[in-house]
TrEMBL record, chain A:
The entry's keywords: Coiled coil, Repeat, Transducer, WD repeat
Protein name: Guanine nucleotide binding protein (G protein), beta 5b
Source lineage: Eukaryota, Metazoa, Chordata, Craniata, Vertebrata
Subunit details: May interact with RGS9; this interaction stabilizes both proteins and increases RGS9 GTPase-activating protein (GAP) activity, hence accelerating the deactivation of D(2) dopamine receptor-mediated signaling.
Key word Hydrolase present: no
Alphabetical list of PANTHER family matching this protein: GUANINE NUCLEOTIDE-BINDING PROTEIN BETA G PROTEIN BETA
Primary gene name: LOC109106329
Pfam families given in the database record: WD40_Gbeta
From TrEMBL, chain B:
Places the protein is found: Cell membrane
Gene it is expressed from: LOC113062049
Protein family membership: Belongs to the G protein gamma family.
GO terms assigned for molecular function: G-protein beta-subunit binding
The protein, known as: Guanine nucleotide-binding protein subunit gamma
InterPro entries: G-protein_gamma, G-protein_gamma-like_dom, GGL_sf
A Pfam match: G-gamma
Keyword Ligase: no
Domain G protein gamma positions: 5-73
Membrane topology: Lipid-anchor
Length: 353, 73
């Protein structure tokens, strides 16, 4: 794939010129259908009432920055990973730690719960994604059953099981995403198109089919077909690294959080950005985003230690949540939408409701 | 399928990949923004009543309600 034959006379310059003209054509095509902004369509909708959301649980136990977390489908368990090299499984209702694994590397940037609830996947500076089956026996050494699944040539930034425990999707600092078979560790598909580190990925809700979105340091968000490996759509409107991408609950759109201090909403059928969530007073990067169950609210964690809650339709901020004492690195709404969890560089996780 | 490291691609390789990709994207079928926004709006409104974080849930039904008495850290 890297070394395709060249037509006679093609040089980097002619290709760059062709690229520029295609980009202009793309913008022209997209602009033809840009007849309105989302917040204009939302004018007739009632504004949201006052929000009272507070910290209901604080999960303490990590020795260093919390980098990632994921909810179990049972709506009460959580897995989190940290710079300290530890991956912890918690019961969010009681705050008890149920399992702890020490990884052979520090900066475990990615972790994910398996759909069955019986395993977790994690990885980071080791350039791998490993799966640990969770044992009911508290005394069992989880590290002994570890299975190495993915191998990248740079750090693992994000991982996610697909609809079953059998396949994992990964993104990496090596600029690629990849789909792996968990049992054999075999690479099933690789996704090339980003020109810099890929920082985040999210799978489309299962009803929408086999696609996923990725975002990275090249400021691009790409939508991929999982079966063909093809990049089907690409969006480049952010002014800096995209730290996090998350599908909208219906699967027809996705949100991004970026170092340019904005979050944006992209509609897949309109093939363009349809909303931007920003304020002059917000100057720090957004590290993580997630939607409430219906998609009306967008929760975003920022490097200024706060979480901003946005009205997705009207584009306005409805609440700022204070509490963390350092950067918020990850924000995830629970599977039934009753609460959301945030993880921070202050070594803790908080459950808000 | 080889796993390639982006740093190993030459500028020419990257330029070729970009042009091929853009050609595919230009051909995409698109819908009007107004229609898409209406659909997003309708989707949200149909689900808003069931959204606990939007509507709020009574304390008794909230699995994360404050534990009474001592707070265990």
């Amino acid at each position: 794939m890297a070394c395709q034959g060249l037509a006679k006379g093609e040089t980097t310059n002619t290709l760059k010129a062709e690229s520029e003209s295609l980009k202009a054509k793309l913008e022209e095509e997209r602009a033809k259908l840009h007849d309105v902004e989302l917040h204009q369509v939302a004018e007739k909708i009632d504004a949201l009432g006052q929000f009272v959301m507070k910290t209901r649980r604080t999960l303490k136990g990590h020795g260093n920055k919390v980098l990632c977390m994921d909810w179990c489908r049972d709506k009460r368990r959580i897995v989190s990973s940290s710079q300290d090299g530890k991956v912890i499984v918690w019961d969010a209702y009681t705050t008890n730690k149920e399992h702890a694994v020490t990884m052979p590397c520090t900066w475990v940037m990615a972790c994910a719960y398996a759909p069955s609830g019986c395993a977790v996947a994690c990885g980071g500076l080791d350039n791998k994604c490993s799966v640990y089956p969770l044992s009911l026996d508290k005394n069992e050494n989880l590290a002994a059953k570890k299975k190495s699944v993915a191998m990248h040539t740079n750090y693992l930034s994000s991982c996610s099981f697909t609809n079953s425990d059998m396949q994992i999707l990964t993104s990496s600092g090596d600029g690629t995403c990849a789909l792996w078979d968990v049992e054999s560790g075999q690479l099933l598909q690789s996704f090339h198109g980003h020109s810099a580190d890929v920082l985040s990925l999210d799978l489309a809700p299962s009803e929408t089919g086999n696609t996923f979105v990725s975002g990275g340091c090249d400021k691009k968000a790409n939508v991929w077909d999982m079966r063909s490996g093809q990049n089907v759509q690409s969006f480049e409107t952010h002014e800096s690294d995209i730290n996090n991408v998350k599908y909208y609950p219906s699967g027809d759109a996705f949100a991004t959080g970026s170092d340019d201090a904005t979050c944006r909403l992209y509609d897949l059928r309109a093939d363009r950005e349809v909303a931007i969530y920003s304020k002059d007073s917000i100057i720090f990067g957004a590290s993580s985003v997630d939607f409430s169950l219906s998609g009306r609210l967008l929760f975003a964690g920022y490097n200024d230690y706060t979480i901003n809650v946005w009205d997705v339709l009207k584009g306005t901020r409805v609440a700022i949540l204070f509490g963390h004492e350092n950067r918020v690195s990850t924000v995830r709404v629970s599977p039934d939408g009753t609460a959301f969890c945030s993880g921070s560089w202050d070594n803790t996780l908080r459950i808000w409701a | 399928m080889p796993v390639i490291n982006v740093e190993e691609l030459t500028d020419l390789d990257k330029a070729k990949m970009e042009v091929t990709q853009l050609k595919t994207e230009v051909k995409l079928e698109r819908a009007k923004v107004s229609k898409c926004c209406e659909e997003i709006s309708e989707y949200i409104q149909s689900g808003a009543d069931e959204d606990p974080l939007v509507k709020g849930i009574p304390e008794e039904k909230n699995p994360f309600k404050e534990k009474g008495g001592c707070v265990i850290c």
